[in-house]
Design a protein that fits this description.
Length: 919
């Protein structure tokens, strides 16, 4: 204790001395210096880079526009005020320019601010051209590349506010922008000279404003950890925290950022998050994706160690790297940089979920990113480790200003390094781009083929469109292509890997071979697009693909077709998810589904194909939706049922809207209408009068209890309602009190709904609910053992009742599914007839990624159809609607809804004979 006191005192003295040296001759904002010192809770949480703020004539500081200095207690800034500040800054200084980057889901502008020297800002477009050449160096040549590198300036782009509860980064960036604009002397002159700094105002503007509303309504009253209240139920429109896991860029806002990245090619993108004490700087720990360039893996610790060196040198405790997040999944938003031969950088700083100063217990750590025991090393985040030589304190009084000091000092250190080694950064960017092209020329695989003629080409087009969003070049073969792997018809999509983003194409399309089963990973272990979409994608080891003729495709859409003639059309159930879209678009027409496959005039109609009168409108929609149909003289003579549209509700808790958001997004995309309902509607009862189907998407992480009891009430109601003062609240649902959950009376209402003939569908982790709360009385839902570890592998599942309507559009006895960590289900022998699909649970059944303990799922049901009273519960232990990824499974959910009236009686159990009624 004594020693640490002495060290602290010594560090404080040293910090003060360095601060004096760092002062320049510029006039200083004395008030700023006094206030930030006051707001910084310990002297060692300050650095000489940020303990002062120069004044510059006619250039507004954040306070001049906002009325407060950055890091002021109890102040958070709305996006409109941030924009106001940046516009004032740009108007006042030729060193600043604002670049629009699109509009969000809710119509807010996405802004990027560029700061550099006056010359660099004037030459922004020229520089953009230079970086584009380094990003795609085909035909460039080393001499020309060298000439460009000598002239170009690397863009270092900061992004913050992706996660709306992590409120500090967008505040800090305003001060950083000002400081970079006006401060003279080292390292600022060099940074402006050698680097173009870009800053996204905030990555999720919709969520920012909603969170700031919520903060001013509730969280501004927080005094410490015990009275912290839950966050708002929504950030952005759909997916909350998972905006950082949108690997296929489904969300408008995220797609705009990718587009911006590919237009400007920042060699470095630095994403600022909050969760870990006091500053974690990403160094790219294992498991690392081996397809990415070794240069990247050298650069990451180069930067993080420099920041640690500087900040520990300033005496700042708790700066560390190495642990916490790894380099396996390519799906994080910031990975758009490393996926495109740039450098992803990432911080986690310590935030309080707002701007209140409060005492925090660091061990065990709090934060939103993850259960931090992982990666934290022995004893959580406060132990001394080789990568954490000066650990964070176990307890700390923490403020927004501390957080700002850490982030900004780190950011300036990183910029100092970039300014000192700008040619190295550019050279590496060029080399990584070049290596990507060479990798596709020199080593197998050389490409991928999505063969033409697949039963459903809409999902092939989906894959191609995602690749195109990512800047990957795709061609369409004009004639047959003969390769070692087979002969592919004209119209097949070819992805050649000898292109700048060829390695990214490989990463997205290949089977994930996890490098070390003893390593854990922060997110998914597998994402193989062909397996996720049930689309045939062939890996090609034949170099001849590189010279195959192909026309570049932009964003392909698949035209549907109606073959033959006759008044009735049979729309084929081929797995295309747009079949549901067709049914709803033509809601006034009568559709019938055939219950078994049949061949008519040589055309094969799979079970589930839908018959409808072939009006011009029907034919036109079939065309637009990429569906395949056969016109017939009359309906085939097989069993069929009417496909009447159900009234659908989707249930969401208030505390777990994220996974629901993915399902909402998919339903909206496929134009499947639903009422989004919450506990309020469930408790109201009489559900059967209003709905035919209720879907409970996966949500919560405490099994059924999460769904039933949801956010714990702390006595005071938390209203999520729109008011004049807080207009961003009350969107996507309203509640006078989001706490408390549906409760046991809600469960009773669900049971009543089912008994009265409703169809309840539970997905993923929500499937604990029916078993745990006795809705399905004989079904057991167990949790796996602690040794079990299945971070989203793709596995083979066995279809046990292939004639069940949920398998319309599927062929074969097995199908790939993403393992969703739903319950380990078990049913008694006499109820085995309820099992529609089960996990093989063998090593060979793991198709992609890591699965430790796969034997625990051996023969476990993956989907059940449990009849109860007049209705039924369809229990998916899988999640057929996971993050806009497993579009191959989605039709199972669609079918369960479309054919809700036509579910057959349970299959006869194998043996022995069961009692007549099991209840
Ligand atoms: Zn975050």
């Amino acid at each position: 204790m004594k020693l640490s006191h002495m060290v602290t005192a010594w560090l404080a003295a040293l910090t003060a001395a360095v601060a004096i040296l760092a002062q320049t001759k510029q006039p200083q904002d004395e008030e700023y210096a006094r206030l930030v010192k006051e707001w910084t809770t310990k002297p060692e949480f300050m650095s000489p880079l940020v303990d002062h703020l120069p004044k510059a004539a006619a250039v507004p500081s954040p306070k001049d526009v906002l009325g407060y200095h950055i890091g002021a207690p109890q102040k958070l800034t709305y996006t409109s005020d941030m924009a106001k500040y940046y516009q004032a800054l740009a108007a006042a200084s030729p060193r600043v320019r604002i670049l629009p980057a699109g509009r969000t889901d809710e119509g807010k502008e996405q802004l990027v601010v560029a700061v550099s020297s006056e010359d660099n800002i004037r030459n922004l477009e020229t520089n953009r051209g230079y970086l584009a050449k380094l990003a795609d160096p085909r035909g460039l040549g080393d001499a020309e590349a060298r000439r460009i590198i000598a002239q170009a300036k690397p863009i270092y782009m900061f992004t913050g506010g992706l996660h709306s509860a992590e409120t500090g980064p967008p505040e800090m960036l305003m001060e950083l922008a000002y400081r970079l604009t006006v401060e003279e002397g080292a390292p600022f002159d060099q940074i402006r000279q050698n680097v173009v700094v870009m800053m996204a105002e905030t990555l999720e503007p919709d969520g920012r404003d909603r969170y700031v509303d919520w903060y001013y309504k509730y969280k501004i009253h927080e005094t410490g950890e015990p009275d912290r209240v839950a966050g708002p139920p929504y950030w952005g429109k759909y997916i909350y925290h998972d905006n950082n896991r949108d690997i296929n860029y489904s969300q408008v806002t995220m797609r705009n950022w990718l587009k911006f990245y590919l237009e400007w090619h920042p060699p470095i993108l630095h994403d600022l998050h909050e969760s870990e004490p006091f500053l974690f700087t990403f160094s790219g720990q294992a498991p690392q994706n081996p397809s990415l360039d070794p240069i990247l893996y050298a650069e990451l610790p180069w930067f993080s160690n420099f920041e640690m060196t500087k900040m520990i040198g300033y005496g700042m405790p708790g700066v560390w790297d190495h642990a916490f997040v790894d380099m396996w999944s390519p799906g994080y938003l910031g990975f758009m940089a490393s996926n495109h031969n740039g450098m992803l950088r990432m911080y986690e700083t310590f935030g309080n979920g707002g701007a209140n100063t409060m005492k925090r217990n660091v061990a065990p750590p709090a934060g939103d990113e993850a259960p931090a025991a992982e990666g934290g090393g022995r004893g959580g985040m406060t132990s001394r480790e080789w990568y954490r030589p000066l650990p964070p304190y176990k307890e700390v009084e923490w403020s927004m200003r501390n957080n700002t000091n850490y982030m900004e000092t780190g950011a300036l250190s990183a910029l100092e390094l970039t300014a000192g080694f700008a040619p190295t950064v550019l050279e590496n960017f060029y080399r990584k781009s070049l290596h990507s092209i060479e990798a596709g020329k020199n080593e197998a695989p050389y490409g991928y083929v999505l063969p033409a003629g697949q039963a459903d080409m809409t999902r092939a087009a989906f894959v191609v469109n995602v690749l195109r969003l990512q800047g990957i070049e795709v061609g369409r073969a004009g004639a047959e292509v003969k390769l070692k792997e087979g002969t592919f018809a004209a119209g097949s999509f070819l992805v050649k890997l000898d292109q700048p983003y060829g390695r990214l194409a490989k990463i997205l399309l290949e089977v994930q071979k996890y490098p070390d089963p003893n390593l854990r990973t922060y997110d998914d272990a597998a994402w193989t697009m062909g397996l996720m979409c049930h689309t045939d994608i062939r890996e090609i080891s034949d170099k001849a693909i590189l010279s195959a003729a192909a026309t570049p495709v932009d964003t392909p859409s698949i035209d549907g077709e109606v073959k033959g003639s006759g008044p009735i059309v049979a729309v084929l159930a081929n797995g295309a998810n747009s079949l549901a879209t067709l049914r709803w678009r033509l809601r006034n027409l009568r559709f019938e589904a055939i219950e078994q496959a049949v061949t008519v005039n040589g055309a094969e109609l799979p079970a589930g194909s839908m018959l409808v009168e072939g009006t011009p409108r029907v034919r036109s929609e079939i065309g637009k939706l990429g569906l395949k149909a056969v016109a017939l003289a009359k309906a085939p003579e097989v069993a069929r049922h009417a496909v009447d549209l159900p009234r659908v509700a989707m249930f969401s808790t208030w505390g777990g809207t994220q996974d629901v958001g993915w399902v909402r997004y998919a339903f909206d995309h496929f134009e499947m209408p639903y009422d989004l309902i919450y506990k309020e509607r469930i408790r109201q009862g009489n559900l059967r009068a209003a709905y035919d189907v209720i879907v409970i998407p996966s949500q919560g992480n405490r099994g059924g209890k999460s769904i039933v009891f949801d956010i714990e009430s702390k006595g005071k109601p938390l209203a999520y309602t729109k008011t004049a003062e807080f207009p961003s609240l009350g969107m996507y649902g309203e509640s006078d009190d989001i706490t408390g959950g549906m409760g046991l009376e809600g469960v009773l209402e669900l049971e009543r709904f089912v008994r009265q003939g409703g169809v309840l569908i539970t997905l993923g982790s929500s499937s604990y609910l029916p078993a745990e709360f006795g809705l399905t009385r004989t079904v057991e839902a167990a949790h796996p053992t602690p040794q079990f570890y299945a971070p989203g592998p793709i596995v083979e599942a066995e279809i046990t009742r292939p004639t069940h309507p949920i398998f319309y559009g599927y062929s074969g006895q097995t199908t790939p599914v993403r393992y969703a960590n739903g319950p380990l289900l078990r049913v008694p022998l006499e109820d085995r007839g309820w099992v529609l699909m089960r996990y093989a649970g063998t090593e060979q059944s793991v198709l992609s990624g890591l699965f430790k303990g796969v034997a625990e799922v051996h023969n476990r049901p993956a989907i059940l159809d449990v009849p109860i009273g007049l209705g039924r519960i369809i229990v998916f232990a899988t999640n057929p609607c996971y993050r806009w990824q497993n579009l191959g499974e989605f039709a199972m959910l669609e079918n369960a809804i479309l054919h809700y009236k036509a579910m057959p009686a349970p299959a006869a159990p194998a043996a022995p004979a069961p009692p007549a009624e099991k209840r």
